User: Fold Nicotinate phosphoribosyltransferase from Garciella nitratireducens DSM 15102.
Amino acid sequence: MSFQRKLQLATDFYQLSMGNVYYLDNKKDQIAVFDLFIRKNPCDGGYTIAAGLEQIIEYIEQLHFDDEDIALLKKNHPEFDENYLKYLRNFSFSGEIYAVPEGTIVFPNEPIIRVKAPLIQAQLIETTMLTIINHQSLIATKASRIVDAADGGTVLEFGLRRAHGSEAGLYGARAAIIGGCAGTSNVESEYLIEIPSKGTMSHSLVQSYDSELEAFRNYAKYNPNNLILLVDTYDTLNSGVPNAIKIFQELREKNQLGDTYGIRLDSGDLAYLSKTARKMLDQAGFADAIISASSDLDEYIIRDLKLQGATIDSWGVGTKMITSYDCPALGAVYKLSQIEEKGQVKPKIKISNDVIKITNPGYKKVVRFYDRNSHMALADLILLDDEKIDEKEPLEIFDPICTWKRKVLTNFYAKELLIPIFVNGKKVYQSPNIKEIQNYVKHQKQFIGEEYRRALNPHIYHVDLSEKLWNLKQQLIHQER
Ligand SMILES: Nc1ncnc2c1ncn2[C@@H]1O[C@H](COP(=O)(O)OP(=O)(O)OP(=O)(O)O)[C@@H](O)[C@H]1O
Ligand SMILES: O=P(O)(O)OC[C@H]1O[C@H](OP(=O)(O)OP(=O)(O)O)[C@H](O)[C@@H]1O
Ligand SMILES: O=C(O)c1cccnc1
Assistant:
């Protein structure tokens, strides 16, 4: 491909044109605080998995504009001041970023990234951070829902061909692994996330031979250790499964049957076919043969197939995971919450008629409360950075909109969710590898009640505001209205 991407320009024009204003109006060095947060969980679910931080870190570290970029901006935007363009040419991020570690289970309205930096810098990175977080968090969450439906079964990501371009396929595969998929068919992921790709065979291989049996036999010759035969090209139960059994018998007689072998169903009634195929395989002495299935699967169909008693061990999921088909976008936003002007700190608010959309002002942190005995998550609290939690005293928390809904926490401990990623423009955080992120997701799920994780009509997890923050918010609302 001759077209080379330029991530520094993969932003919205308004970021650059506002930068021009900040520069000319001497606002560029005012220290601004922005919060990045989601407003709604994907698929009307009860939680979101934050993913993409590693790519954000890479973006921030590499962010600069070269001579070619500056020439392009100068040509197309004569309103950009000469000195502003010089500023961009010498740009590098010098601020602070706190974020939740990748794979953290998060909920609407709580900051998952907090940026404190000179205004022009903090503004400039908005679009790319949102692009990355919105995409990967969406797919990681979708994958997690699908993995939960498979209830211990293996889920493989097969969606590259249906992704919205190969970049979405690649980062979608990464997110799917974070969400709990055991593997992906995407070979480029071997390079990005350093895990081997996986797969079976397609109908074309079967069709390319004179008979299905001959196709299976030749495939088996070259794939003794990963022998998953696609059995639905002609007639699943009358030809595909019997031919697969014949091949397994031939290999067993020669002592060549590996540990990973079985069949893939790709059409028809997957419950009926898997149950019948299971019986046929068991009767032939192949109880450990894997039955895998694909065909427009998602969390709802997988759950239904399991209710029908489908005997499917491994699920290949493509289109509906990689595109998050029923919920195609996540709407994380990035909002200014504070600005320093001439040494004076000014908390800021954005008012909306939709109460839930009124932003939370100030330089804030987020804590998650856990029960000291069960270690289950109880609620999250957004508070101003200088506030302290006394774990020894009972703590009353309240719903920030329906303030009469209150709860007293006792016997709890609190963990801060935002951790330092960049300080004074320097990275102070080492990203974990993909397996560690996946394990972190799995670990946390045990401590978020299942009522918050169920696919349909989950409970709403509480994200409350401290009294001090709530008061500040009210004060600003009254001041601005
Ligand atoms: N027992 C079942 N219960 C509910 N849904 C099922 C069951 N078996 C299969 N499905 C789903 O039904 C849909 C069937 O898709 P479709 O009608 O396009 O046919 P197909 O069987 O895949 O055949 P073909 O690939 O030849 O078009 C898929 O989404 C599949 O996952
Ligand atoms: O159904 P999805 O969840 O999107 O999973 C990916 C699909 O891609 C393949 O089909 P395709 O018809 O493209 O090729 P094939 O000839 O290998 O079946 C595969 O057989 C799956 O059905
Ligand atoms: O390996 C497979 O079976 C596979 C890969 C991509 C799409 N569908 C199936």
Q: What stands out?
A: The domain at 7-139+328-480 is CATH 3.20.140.10 (nicotinate phosphoribosyltransferase). The mean pLDDT is 97.
